[in-house]
Amino acid sequence: MADLVQLWKAPEEPLDCLYLATTEGTNPLEGLVLPGTNPKSIGHAVSELGVRGLEGEVLVTASPSRDFRRIACFGIGKAGDFTVHSLRKLLRRVLEQAGHNREYQIAVALSAMPRDVDAQEARTVALAELALADYRFDRFRSHPDESTKVDVVHVVPLKGEDEKGLRARIDRARRLDTLVRLARDLGNRPGNDLTPESFAGEASAMFAGTPVRATVMGRKELEKEGLRGIVAVGQGSVQEPRMVRLEYRAKKPRASVVLVGKGVTFDAGGISLKVAAEMAEMKHDMAGAAAVVAAMRTVAEDQPPLKVVALVPLVENLPSGGALKPGDILTMVDGTTVEVENTDAEGRLLLADAMAYSARFHPDVLVDLATLTGACKVALGSELAGLFANDDDLAHQLERLGHRTGDRVWRLPLLAEYRDLLRSEWADLKNSAGRWGSLPASAAFLARFVPEKARWAHLDIAGVAYIPRSRNGLPPGATGFGVRLLMALLDELAEKA
Ligand code: BES
Ligand code: MN
Ligand code: ZN
Q1: Catalytic residues, which ones?
Q2: Contact 181, 132 (CB under 8 A)
Q3: What's the CA-to-centroid distance between 446 and ligand 3, angstroms?
Q4: pLDDT tens, 290-324?
Q5: pLDDT in tens, 266-295
Q6: Do strands 477-478 and 455-460 pair parallel, antiparallel, or not at all (unpaired)?
Q7: Strand boundaries in 58-137, DSSP class E
Q8: Domains of the chain by start residue, with CATH
Q9: Ligand 1 atom at minimal distance to the Cα of residue 371
Q10: Ligand that lies nearest to the alpha carbon of residue 371, given by its number in the listed order
């Protein structure tokens, strides 16, 4: 819910509960501006409880103040060990407990800041996590449990925090929340619901009446433009491929930015069929596309002094009598020929076309996001996205912004030598290397299609875009990774370009 989180306002009726995050060895009320009547009595009640702040400690008491019915203290351990993970876990537990107790209006006081993000942005990160803490995907449940939904969370101000600043942070957190939810919902929707057609239709409708111009290219147009990679991957499915183009241009743009997102609405692997186990997860193989569309929404709202174009190729990768086959040779939009060694290495075929096509927008900066390789998931797990870049400044910027937003990335080598792994007997290159080095080889493949002069970064989000079970305070399913990172990048490019 977009307006779940609100700035503290003295309630007409008492709030159901005040949740206090408490740390070891600190006075639980330290650093807080406890609003409302009689804050002293709250301090008294809390000290009566004997709060120690140990991790996992939960203590509840009746509230002596008439602003709250109860006070619940959640211990989070040592302030110095507090991270985004512990923050998420805490907030999810708070929202769950409040829901179970049928508390509809609560206040949350959070004076500890996660130490693994920039101090400057930590408060916004925390507020965004608070807003996201009740996210769940229940679109397909006939009886979603509405009775356990908290309606309003009042944010307790911190000492030294002026109201205007806090208001601005809450606004920003709400925006992050809305867009991360959008990306998560898209990633969680199954392949029969989110098809190339419905994704394209919804994504373009989202920009009606905004300064972002949305165009949807269908199969015929893709053919006509020579985007064979996209058409070929999609040809095994009755769902025809699409490409969404979202264009925004400020009057005097300081730079041209192109965002490309892999949009495979379901990846069965094609003729190089995947094994059955975990195949259902491949409904999220459009998480890159989702993040790019969400980021474009901020462009529509903020209208930065940039030219920003998003290219979102959308296909379903299925085997059939008409499907792309191993051994087939494709001529991509820039004339490069590619031998398809493995139809499951489909993402790079889409991205290569979209990236080469982006040359017409003369990008200064090109960023692509893709759930590209299982190898990246093997290498980095669910903590970090893989980053490849042809430009050190852009790479460092993304590393820094990853640290600030919580969408963390780890740079991997982009080396011309890896191209050897993609040598084909029959075409300019093949789409899949052997087992060893397949991760850097995937980036070496993409590098061939980067327009001249573009500073380019490729984010492999295969490990971070989706988790099968709840972990580290994240709900199961799509994570919305990349939305916050792209938003932060666009902000900086608008400032500094
Ligand atoms: N969509 C997958 C990659 C993936 C795997 C994403 C696990 C998220 C979780 C991609 O299209 C794929 O199948 N890649 C192949 C490439 C290989 C055939 C060169 C892979 O990683 O096995
Ligand atoms: Mn695949
Ligand atoms: Zn895929």
Answers
A1: 274, 348
A2: yes
A3: 14
A4: 999 999 999 999 999 999 999 999 999 999 999 99
A5: 999 999 999 999 999 999 999 999 999 999
A6: unpaired
A7: 58-62, 68-75, 105-109
A8: 3-159 (3.40.220.10), 186-496 (3.40.630.10)
A9: 6
A10: 1
